[in-house]
Amino acid sequence: MAAMNKFERVMTAFEHRKPDVTPAFILGGDFRFYKQFMDKIGFTPEEMHRYAKDGIMTGAPLCHALSVKLGFDCDWVTLTAMEHFDPETQQVVDTFGERAAFVVNDGVPHLWYNGPFLTSKEKIKAWWDEGRPVDFPLMLMNPSFKLHHTLMSKYDGFTVLIGIPGVYEPLSMGIGLAQVAKFARKEPDFLKEILDRNFTVQEKALEYIVKHKIPIVMCGDDYGYNEGLQISLAQWQKFIKPYLKRYVEIVHSGGAKFALHSCGRIGELFPDFVEIGIDGVESLQPKLNDLPALKQKFGDKITFMGAIDDTDLLVNGTPDQVRAEVRKAVDILGKNGGFIPGGTNFLLDTKIENVQAMVEEIHRPS
Amino acid sequence: MSELPRASDSTGQHLDGIPALVYTAFWQHKIDGRFRKATKGISESILFDFIDYRPAALMTIDDGDYTVTPVADPEKLARKPDASVRGRMADATQLLNGLGAMIKALFTGTIKLKGIRKLYLLVKILQTKEVD
After folding, report:
1. What is the pLDDT of residues B78-114, one digit of tens each?
2. Using DSSP, how many helices (H) and how many strands (E) does chain A show?
3. How far apart are CA B61 and CA A193, in angstroms?
4. Among A104, A106, A132, A135, the residue to mutate for chain B (most B Cβ within 10 A)
5. Which of A2, A40, A116, B118 has the smallest number of Cβ neighbours within 10 A?
6. Whole-angstrom Cα distance, residue A6 to residue A23?
7. Could you read off the pLDDT of A138-184 as tens digits, one per residue?
8. Which letter does DSSP use for residue A226 in this model?
9. Angle at A60 between CA A55 and CA A65, to 5 degrees
């Protein structure tokens, strides 16, 4: 088989055909992983100069240069919503109501979600009266599009999946899970109104991404806990699925593929994912989901992404153990294509030598 | 390559708010050596003070390295900083939303800069392409 570039490899996997070698995916590397990378591997001055000249970010948590250097074929950018400042409570809040803050307590910075800001119906309505949610800062998206095209053209087809937050996370993190549950039972129309208002800005952002010819759009929306879905399947189908379906339709209307990042035990959503046309699902924590069974049932319709355990294996395992698990995953989940393996979440305290072993084994021809 | 960077001058105390944001903004340059390259032999202090969102952050640049210290009352600083960025947090938050908002804030004076030539060092650091 002729050698493919990274983009061809990724798209071949999305089309459920066998690529020359299995492509590798990295969701991202957070500050701590970046620190470890710089300490143990780092960039040469020539690389730094080249990345800077090409406008490729070399810092966490959006470190595409790290993804390229470690040999991955594709990574991810999620575009952030408009930020506001509430003078009364002195808090920085995104347009869906999520509070977040940077903290530094051991010399390595972290960005933490601090909880919901819209903690009552009155606060939600007051938020709307202020004209929120407002559109994503679309101009801030342009550098990501440029970056995608630069990496694609100058770095062997390296592919950046670009997206926005999904439907459920902005809702649950903006108003809080307790209110989601309460409104779902007692005031479903009000919950739908929140989702409608959120969707007006999400829709525009998705259309903007699609207009810029991004071939794979990936949106993050965590639906699972370790033990199961965060809300019932019936509620997910009633409140979340219709909007997620619209996400997929918008992306498909531009000829792009739609992938979903979703953590936790989410296997019971796969029939719905297939029904609404989702092309790929990422994270797929192997300790929480019966991946061989899901592959058997849905593997010809959905591309599997991630699936290499980063809660234990990549953190505590040895490179040999990582290679063995990766090989097993590629043999089972990569059968007939449709598999883009990688760690199941942002790399944090993951051992760098394990990540290198993972990528080498993913790329090793079967 | 480098020791774990210090979160503050002496105690390694917890930073959040504006001090954490300032620390974070230059962290990757500190880790990859670009900060050292851009500030070798330079000593200066820059105050970031959003008057409705204190503590302010005093960034002290010293010969290739920096520390960030929270300052509860910037008026009582023993030594006047070499440069400063002042404003209200609502305007500062707008800076996160793009260049247009940033230019508007600077031109309308809602964000005030003092010591422009000294502040240019920050631009120089962020634009440095080569590691030390």
Report:
1. 999 999 999 988 777 766 666 666 677 777 778 889 9
2. 16, 11
3. 50
4. A104
5. A2
6. 7
7. 888 888 899 999 999 999 999 999 999 999 999 999 999 999 999 99
8. S
9. 45
Which of B93, B102, B103, B128 best tests the A interface by mutation, with the highest count of A CBs <10 A? B93
**A253 and A247 in contact (C-beta within 8 Å)?**
no
Nearest-CA distance B93 → chain A (Å): 6
Residue of B nearest to A136 (CA): B97
Which residue of B lies nearest to A92 if distances are taken between CA atoms?
B93
Number of C-beta neighbours around residue B96 at 10 A: 18
Structure tokens at A329: 């995953």
Structural contact between residues A81 and A172, judged by C-beta atoms closer than 8 angstroms: no
Q: How far is B89 from chain A (nearest CA, A)?
A: 7
Distance CA A138, CA A92 (A): 19
How many Å lie between the alpha carbon of B37 and the closest alpha carbon of chain A?
A: 11
Nearest neighbour of A82 by CB, restricted to B14, B97, B129: B97
Query: Measured on CA atoms in the order B106, B111, B117, B121, is the torsion positive or negative?
Result: negative
Nearest to B7 among A53, A83, A105 (CB): A105
Domain ranges, ordered by start, for chain B: 6-87+113-127
Q: What gap in Å lies between CA A123 and CA A117, rounded to an integer?
A: 8
pTM: 0.91
pLDDT at B98: 62
User: Of B5, B22, B8, B92, which Cα lies nearest the Cα of B57?
Assistant: B22
Query: If you ran DSSP here, which 8-state letter would residue A229 be given?
Result: B
CB A314 within 8 A of CB A325: no
Tokens coding B88: 């209200």
| Domain at B6-87+113-127, CATH class | alpha beta
What 3-state DSSP class applies to B30? Answer: helix
| Residue of chain B whose Cα is closest to the Cα of A82 | B97
**Nearest of A88, A152, A162, A278 to residue B90 by alpha carbon:** A88
Residue in B31, B53, B98 nearest the CB of A140: B98
A291 φψ region: left (φ > 0), alpha (ψ -120 to 50), beta (else): alpha
Distance from CA of B125 to the nearest CA of A (A): 13
Residue B15 φ/ψ, nearest 5 degrees: -115, 140
Question: Which residues of chain A are within 8 Å of residue B90 when distances are taken between CB atoms?
Answer: 85, 87
